[in-house]
Amino acid sequence: MKYLLLGYTPAAAWDAATADAPSEEALAAFAAYQRFEQELIATGEFVGSEGLGHPAVSTTVRRSGDGVVATDGPFAELKEVLASFAVIDVASQERAVEIASRIVEVLGEPIEIRPIMGEDFTG
Amino acid sequence: MNADIEHLLRVEAPQVLGALVRRFGRFDVAEDAVQEALLAASRAWPAEGVPDNPRSWLIRVGYRRMVDALRADQARRRREQEAGVAELALQEPARRPGPARETDDSLALLLLCCHPTLSATSQVALTLRAVGGLTTAEIAHAYGTTENTMGTRISRAKQQLARAGARFTPPADLRRDGRMAAVMQALYLIFNEGYTASTGDRLARVDLTGEAIRLTRMLHASVPDDAEVTGLLALMLLTEARRPARTGGHDELVPLDEQDRTRWDIGLIGEGTQLIDGVWTRREVGPYQLQAAIAAVHAAAASPERTDWPQIAALYLWLERLTPTAPVRLSRVVAVTKAYGPARGLALLDDLNHRFQLDRDPLVRRREHAVRAHLLSMTGDATGAARLYREAASLTGNQIEQRYLLDRADHLA
Fold first, then answer.
1. Pairing verdict, β A2-10 and A111-115
2. Do A17 and B60 lie within an 8 Å CB cutoff?
3. B16 vs chain A: nearest CA distance in angstroms?
4. pLDDT digits (tens, 9 = 90+) for B345-401
5. Residue A9: which of B70, B89, B95 has the nearest Cβ?
6. Pairing between β-strand A80-89 and β-strand A46-51 as defined by DSSP bridges
7. Taken in order B247, B251, B253, B254, is the CA torsion positive or negative?
């Protein structure tokens, strides 16, 4: 079963962060995360993961009275914004929680687990 | 600032801008962000050293500046102080370490900056900033205008691009794309402005000639098979080669046939000649190749007397057919005179004046007078020649040229 793991981050903190060179802790956290990713690749549970750009650089396309229009910015202004995602393919929901917990332990930010609807759930 | 760092920043500028525009769009915002990133680097690097991967550094800082600008634009700031550090999220672009993708975005950027919706002056200004990495102040200085005026011109140009829906996608077939001609013209205009410095004193100006050559080299590297781009680069190098001999000790203009040819830059001549020879045989001749060929014939002559003038006259005739402009016609008159004598030259000039009124064209009237004055002095009409030299001098704003023309008149009187 596939799950989408959504990594969230506080919008205000993201806004306040600077582009200076990564801190030692951040680099260490990433290294730890990447080791864990290797583990998941080895078990065959890893499908893919990506980091996202700041919500400010997103574009939202909507239907409006004037037809379809593209506007700068995210669909909704949120306090916690999506920063990364991963897709895993695991045997159970419990395993998905276990994996997400490991990631939260390493990276420190909240993760939302969204089941990806498979062929057995057409409705 | 350290010259090496400055050079590095100018080379990276279009690549950094390309990386941002390709991913996030919004050329106008990205272009400002890159300028800020270059500025930040020019402040930080001399003290802290150049980072291992300068391009990644610039992309990261530029990206951050874009986020800041867009957030401000979107005008819905959130000020909640939240616990937790979002450093991790911000560093996502660097998540997979390693050098930034090696894509050459300079051509796509040149084409965007020379979009047909923009005037030639706007194309030039935007090219110097977005592709050349020059600051607005430097460009303003180079063109003898204020930073405010130049800033307005650049931001209007960017708005025009946005309104026109200009895209950052290189066209499939450059040969058939008229924008390639606009790009070459913009680069040539930059070169000429640097070479002739139509206003103000030259010493305080950014080296536009060098910048034009640098950008043309970059363009040539992107499209090495384009014969006209090769011709343009050859033309610039062969012209630049004469620069050391072009002004005398008192900053006076030294005409081609009086230049000390030992001061010509042999390296540039060799490179330019090789470039034009390499494409000439392909028979895809265009105006830049013809002008480069003419410059190469001059460069090949050890002394003015040994110049192959009949060949130059023939090349000008060919050039006149492709670009029937007044300056080209006048140059042909000069070449015909040198090749076949002043009588033939005067006859040709009379004929051209009769058909195209060069002596009444405000753009070339000055040069027409100077050429005719020269022909008259050769045929013995010193009084008529002096009068025309003085008339020509009164028509130019360039002091060096004015002094040259008045000198000529004085010698005849």
1. antiparallel
2. no
3. 15
4. 999 999 999 999 999 888 888 889 999 999 999 999 999 999 999 999 988 877 878
5. B89
6. antiparallel
7. negative
CB-based contact B121:A49 (threshold 8 Å)? no
pTM: 0.76
Q: How high is the pLDDT of residue A42?
A: 95
Alpha helix positions (H), B115-255:
120-126, 136-142, 147-163, 178-196, 208-222, 227-240, 243-246
The alpha carbons of chain A give a radius of gyration, in whole angstroms, of 17
For the residues of B66-85, what is the DSSP string, one character each?
Answer: HHHHHHHHHT-------SS-
How many C-beta neighbours within 10 Å does residue A11 have?
Answer: 25
Which residue in B29, B90, B95 has the most chain A C-beta atoms within 10 A of its own C-beta, making it the best mutation to test that interface?
Answer: B90
- The shortest CB-CB distance from A15 to any of B25, B71, B85 is to B71
Chain A interface test: which of B38, B88, B95 (most A C-beta within 10 Å): B88
> Residue for token digits 């002056």?
B121
Question: Using CA atoms, how far apart are residues A39 and A37, in angstroms rounded to an integer?
Answer: 5
Q: Is B26 on the interface with A (CB under 8 A)?
A: yes
CB of A54 within 8 Å of a chain B CB? The answer is yes
- B208 by Cβ neighbours in 10 Å (0-12 / 13-18 / 19+) ranks as buried
Contact check, Cβ <8 Å, B24/A57: yes
**B198 touches B397 (CB < 8 A):** yes
Neighbour-count burial of A67, counting CB atoms closer than 10 A to its CB (0-12 exposed, 13-18 middle, 19+ buried): exposed
By CB neighbour count within 10 A (0-12 exposed, 13-18 middle, 19+ buried), where does B79 fall? exposed
Does A57 contact B at CB distance below 8 Å?
A: yes
Residues in chain B: 413
Give the torsion sign (CA, B51, B52, B54, B55): negative
d(C-alpha B196, C-alpha A99), whole Å: 69
pLDDT band at B94 (very low <50, low <70, confident <90, very high): very low
What SS3 state is found at B53?
coil
Q: What is the pLDDT of residues A66-119, one digit of tens each?
A: 889 888 888 888 888 999 999 999 988 889 999 999 999 988 889 999 988 876
* Residues of chain A contacting residue B77, judged by C-beta atoms under 8 Å apart: 15
Across the interface, do B78 and A26 touch by the CB < 8 Å criterion?
no
Distance from CA of A90 to the nearest CA of B (A): 24
Question: Looking at beta carbons, which residues of chain A come within 8 Å of B92?
Answer: 51-53, 83-84
